[in-house]
Each structure stands twice: as C-alpha cells, then as structure tokens.
Amino acid sequence: MSEVAAFFAWAGAALIVLSDGRRGLALGLALITPGFAVLALVAGESLAAVAILLGGAFAAVQRLRTGPDVWGLMPSGSTSRLLLSIAGGLLALWIATSVMTGPGAPLRFAVLSVLGLMGARVMSGGQTAALVTALAALALSFAMAAGLADTGPGPSPYIVAALFAVGVSVVTLERANGA
Amino acid sequence: MEPELAIGLPVAGSVCAAVLRARPRAAVGAGVFLGLCGVVAVALSIPGRASTLLGITLSMSSESRALLIAAAVALALVVALAPLQVERAILLTWGLAGLAGMAVIAAAPSLDIIVLAVLTMAVLQARSPGTRPFAIRLRGPVLAAALLALAAAAARSDGPPILSRLAAVGLVAGLSVALGTLPYVHQFEPEERTATSPVPWMAFIGPVLAIAVLSRARDLIPSDAGAFGAMMIGLGLLNMLWGSLASWRTETGAAAWHYSFMADWGLALCGFGLAIADGQRAALLVLYGILLSRLPLYLWSRQSLREKRPNDRPINLLAAAMLAGSAPFAGFAARVLLLRGATQVYWPLALVIGLGLLLWLPPSLRLGRSLGLPRGRQAWGVGVALAVNVVIGLYPQPFLTLAGL
Predict the structure, then answer these.
(1) Is the Cβ of B350 closer than 8 Å to some Cβ of chain A?
(2) Which residue, B402, B405, B303, is CA-closest to B68?
(3) Under an 8 A CB cutoff, do A123 and B163 touch?
(4) pLDDT average per 10 residues of sequence, chain A (179 residues)
(5) Chain B window 19-58: which residues touch A at a Cβ cutoff of 8 Å?
(6) Whole-complex ipTM
(7) Where is B58: in which H helix or E strand?
(8) Domain parsing of chain B, residue ranges
(9) Cα–Cα–Cα angle for B119, B124, B130, nearest 5°?
C-alpha cells in the first residue's frame, strides 16, 4: 500500500513537471494528494491525512477551474523535463532505499522525489499556474518531511501546509485574474 | 499566550493598515496600535516557556525575542521618520506582515514550520507588484526552503555518517540562500521598492531566521557541529571579502548598500561559526547594527541615491564611521569580540578577519556620502540611528543580556 502511494506521489510530481496546461497540473496534484494522505495514514497520523487530502483536493480543483484549458503535456522542447522526472525519481529511489536505512522507505522516496521535482519546477520558472501548483505540492512535501522524525510532529505541519496549499491556489489566481 | 499574540496582533495590524489605506491616518493609527500591542506581547513572553493555545507548541528563545524587539524598533523608526513622499500605511502593512512572519519563525516548534513560514512570506512578497517577475522573486526563498527541508530529512534519517554531513551542508546552504548572501546572491534591481526587493530578507527577516535555523541545526546535527561551524566561518569570510569589495567597486549606489549588508552578514556568520560565547555576542551585535542602523540608513539614502547628490558633511562622515565599525559605535564592540573569539579558537583566523576588517573603510565612506544632506525627518532619523548605535557600542551588555548572552 505504502509503495503504491509513494509511486502515485512521484507520478504526480512528474506530471506537474511535464505539464503546462491546467488539466495536467490538476491531475498531477490530484495524484500527489492521495499518495501523501495514504502515507500519513500509514504513519498513524489520521488528522494529518485528512488535512493533506482536503488541502490538496481544494488546490487541485482550484487549478482545474483556472489557467490554460489544455492538458499541455510534454510541449515541444520538454525532453529535459522528461529526463529530470525520470532521473529525479531514480535518484530519490536510490537515496531512500540504499543510502538511507531503516523503516519508512516509501515515505522517504515520496518526500525526496516530490521535494526535488517541485523545487526544480519552481526554479525553472514558467507560467504562474504551473508555479503555484508546484508550490502547493512543495508545501505538502515539506509537511510530509516532518513525518521522517523519530517523534511524530503532530498534525500542525500538515495543517499549516494544507492551509498554504489552499491559500496559494486562491490568492495568486486572484491576482492572475487581474485583481 | 504571548507567542500567539506576538503573531496575531501584527497580522491584524497589517490587515488593518492595508484595508484602511484610503484613510491614511486611520490606517497608521490602527497599524501602530496593534503593532505596539504585538511588541508588548513579545517583550512580556518568557523565553523558553511553551504555549499550546492553538494546538501548536510555540516558544521563543531569548535571542529571537531580542532580535524581534530590535526589528520592531527598526520598523517604528522607519515608519515614524519616513520621508514625506513615502506612504506610511504601505510601509506599516509590509513591516507588520514581516514582523508577524518573523514571530512565527521565532516561535516555531520545528524547522518544518519555519520552512513553511518562509515559503508563505516568499509568496506574499512575490505576488505584490514589482519590477522583477513572480518566478524570479520566488527562486531564492523556494530554493532555501527546499534545501532546509532536504537537510532536515537527511538529518532525521538513519544511514552512514555522510548523511549528517550532507545535512550540515544543506543547512548552511539553505540559510545562505534565504539571506541572499554569496554564493546565492538574490537578483537586485536598484529602482525596485525596498519592501518587494531582496533587502528585507537580508536586513529585516534574516536576523531572526538565522537565529531560528541555527538553534534547530544544533538539535538536528549535534555530532557535526564542528563541520557546520567551519562552513559558516568559510562562508562568512567569503561574504566579508566579496561584500566589502563589491560595495566599494560597484557602480550603482543602491547595489553598494546591498553588498554592504552582505559584508556585515559575513561578520555575523563568522561569529556564529566560532560557536563560543564571544562569537555569538559579536554576531548578535552585528545583527543589532543591521536592524537598527544600517537598514534605516539605507532607506533614508534612497531619495539621495535617486537624485545623485552625495555629500561630505560631518553627518556623512559620522555615518561612514558607524558603517565602518569604528569606535564608539556598535560595530567596534562586535569586531573586538569577534577578534577575541577568533583568537581563542585559532589565532591565524583572527589575523585573516583583522585584515578583512580594513576593507570596510572605502565602501563605508562611499555609503556615508550617499546619504546626501539629510533634512527634516531624515536628519532626525539619521541622528537617532547614530545615537542608538553609539549606545549599543558603549553599553552592549544590556542588549546582550536581553538576548540571554
């Protein structure tokens, strides 16, 4: 179960890296959200899972409502993005399973892959819609990274990250609409 | 309850100042009142005592509390003595928002909440109208947040010792990116408004952020404190050298000020890296100087920089002396403490730092001249900034005691 959830999270992050249209970006966030929620649930953080699910779902729906109304998957010149998605995933998998030891490899893989890919997405620039989607996913991955600690972080980082995801999807879009 | 109020009241003040912007007096009045209440809450908070009113454990350290108070005083100084053409309500809106974010960073229970606070502040700053694109303005803070989160993940995972070393590298790099010091200098445009430029990260938010990250770093990588300190010192020396030389040689006056902040951060990073009491004291005095003197002087020099009318009056020379860290200003006490600390740790380091300090003189003369001839409120402001700096320089102990040092 955890492994499938972690794969969903990576696939969602890869989709956000590869997409420019609102459908592709929303689907990417919609894949990351349940992936992270399941991983939080497996770690015994049910309130955190609900927060992640609500925050991520709201941000994904909001993304689906605004932005370029296309899938925008792999536009021309996106070979480097494809390589980044695959290489980033492989690197995260290697670090999470071979360099780092102990239980929780799926969570580590999910966190490292989403954090790395979303960080790269924001750094590479692009349209506001893609940036805010990546920011929402990045915030969720920060909260999930808190779950790597030996002592549980409690629900606070997850709730803060969920609120950030909701906020960034609403506030920035208002401005993009000319507010 | 104090940490919650320290966060909530400046937020309320910022919102009020923004909403009432059409009625400037009401905006400033509401903002000042709520901001003052927030500062009182910070001052009344007991360092180390946790509060869980919101379900999150919030607690402030003595150092963070002291720098928050210093930041609030700097904001008050800048708003009260703002040049006539500057809209105080806007200044207060941004300043109180920054203060609230700093209070969150200071009181956050973990590095994860700090990272999320940095991300939130970055988005709020990047979405405001400015000359640099949204994506460019986000780059620095987002990279900082990602590096800090990766470092925390590496530190928390089991594995070979190299993971802990990588965590140390990530923490130093993340802090450096967040501040905008070398080698992650934020893109700076001289004509950009200060609130939306990278300067607040370096000169307003930076001090509290650095203290918060460094205190979490000690808990995350206790076994690699030596390597962490060595990297901080190396980065500090690099910034001292580059910041002072660039501040001297760069063509644009505003960029010279930007680089001068970087040079001061070099001193602070060296002090923190020494990891002994004298080093910490020196770093804290440098940060007080950045908040209470260098930042206000930078803001008051903007008009003169635009009009390109430098001046060589005694007030300019006094300002230059303060910026160069000569006696009796706070910078002098900081430098003495830093040299004493470096001598205790490794005397050749004191020699290198001592030689580096000579580089402050030419850029400081340039920056002092760039203030032009301060008149009216600006003249009062420069006078107050100089007086505050002299007081810290002559009597540093009360300010260090406030920070628990």
Answers:
(1) no
(2) B402
(3) no
(4) 92 94 93 95 92 95 85 86 94 94 91 95 88 94 90 86 92 44
(5) 55-56
(6) 0.93
(7) none
(8) 1-107, 110-402
(9) 120
